[in-house]
Specification:
- The protein has 15 helices and twelve strands.
- By secondary structure, it is of the alpha/beta class.
- It folds into two domains: 291 residues, NADP-dependent oxidoreductase domain (TIM Barrel, Alpha-Beta Barrel), CATH 3.20.20; 62 residues.
- An eight-stranded parallel β-barrel has the order 3-4-5-8-9-10-11-12, surrounded by six helices.
- Strand 10, helix 7 and strand 11 form a beta-alpha-beta unit.
- The protein starts with a strand and ends with a helix.
């Protein structure tokens, strides 16, 4: 397992995490076996947003003797009302639901207390300035939650969370398809194939979020890695071609500040599909091979930081230079953090000899010589 740090918390999480939402219909024995298999493979991050008492209880029993081996993302604002899930900010519902989470998981603390599912900017502003946030702070003060996080599908909300020094973690939806979608307050927009018709490459809001997360040292844990399974099915993929779990994970884990992918799995076989990432060859991880030949690809001409341009005859880390350029141009002026990162590179864009070897290797047909020239002028 590869481990990455969550901000300055001292928490090190595996790049493959356990999203347990599909455990609702599983028997206790099935949950026990999957949890044990996770531990055997050093999976140590568990996300429990589900309010269903049965799944909380099953997970609690499964981790009972190994609580110390897990970092838990537990959600505040996810409630069970009239035998169904309800997201709410009503404190008479929020407090009992979170206390129920602790009781059923059999623990007296949650490592990462997640403000649950905020996709509207107005709602973020509202709940972070009222009794809901007071309750979150009280939980942290009492050491019931050790750190504060937030879950969202909206990059604008995520950026506001990054600007909040009390929030060390954002659980965000990342995959090659969602990265082409502009900010939206409705998660349903990401699943409508018609919305992908005229899109091109990674959207500016998402580039800005990835840069801001680096600047503020905010960790990103990732949900929806396969776009609800759609990216794994040719007929449902917005690219018109299926990707593998390994290719999706490679794309996600090369995004700045991405720490762990919470993979929702039904069984050990599906978990193995994600764990294959750890031993996969560069060829197996190569998502560019799929996206460049896809009938509906929208990435041609744009760098996706896949690294196939390497090695550079002038020793430039081309994908990193391109990444800093893309992050910088989302702002009216270059943020100091990006300029500092760029200036720390041993070989910068002005080292380019224009030999063109990188362009021969680039699967997305990026004009890298032009990119180096633009980057040199931008950072002068």
């Amino acid at each position: 397992m590869e481990f990455r740090s969550i901000a300055d918390t001292g928490i090190e999480v595996g790049v493959i995490g356990f999203g347990a939402e599909w455990m609702v219909d599983k028997s206790q024995d099935e949950v026990n076996k999957l949890v044990t298999y996770c531990m055997d493979n050093d999976v140590n991050l568990l996300d429990c947003w589900m309010s269903d008492p049965s799944v909380r209880s099953k997970l609690g029993k499964a981790i009972k003797d190994n609580r110390d081996k897990w970092y838990i993302q537990g959600h505040i604002g996810s409630t069970w009302q009239n035998k169904q899930y309800v997201r709410t900010r009503e404190m008479d519902k929020v407090i009992p639901a979170f206390e129920d989470l602790l009781e059923r998981l059999g623990t007296d603390y949650i490592d990462l207390g997640m403000i649950h599912y905020v996709d509207e900017v107005a709602e973020y502003e509202r709940i972070t300035n009222n009794e809901f946030m007071d309750y979150v702070y009280k939980l942290k003060e009492d050491n019931i939650i050790h750190h504060i996080g937030l879950s969202t599908h909206n990059p604008e909300v995520a950026m506001k969370a990054c600007d909040n020094p009390d929030i060390v973690l954002v659980m965000f939806s990342i995959n090659p398809a969602f990265d082409m979608m502009p900010a939206t307050e409705s998660i349903d927009d990401y699943f409508e194939l018609d919305n992908y018709g005229n899109l091109y490459g990674i959207q500016a809001e998402r580039q800005e979020l990835y840069e801001k997360a680096m600047k503020t040292n905010t960790a990103l844990t990732v949900m929806k890695p396969y776009a609800g399974g759609r990216l794994l099915k040719q007929e449902e993929s917005p690219f018109g071609v299926a990707l593998t779990p390994v290719q999706c994970l490679e794309y996600i884990l090369t995004r700045p500040s991405a720490k762990s992918v919470l993979v929702g799995v039904n069984d050990i076989t599906e978990l193995d599909g994600a764990l294959e990432y750890l031993s996969a060859s560069d060829e197996d991880r190569n998502y560019s091979r799929i996206l460049t030949t896809a009938p509906k690809s929208s990435y041609l001409g744009q760098c996706t930081y896949c690294g196939h341009c390497a090695p550079c005859s002038a020793n430039i880390d081309i994908k990193t230079v391109n990444k800093f350029y893309d992050l910088a141009v989302t702002h009216d002026s270059i943020p100091d953090s990006i300029r500092d990162h760029y200036n720390q590179l041993e070989y910068k864009a002005d080292s380019c000899t224009k030999c063109g070897m990188c362009m021969d290797r680039c699967p997305f047909k990026v004009d890298i010589i032009d990119m180096m020239d633009k980057t040199r002028k931008l950072f002068e």
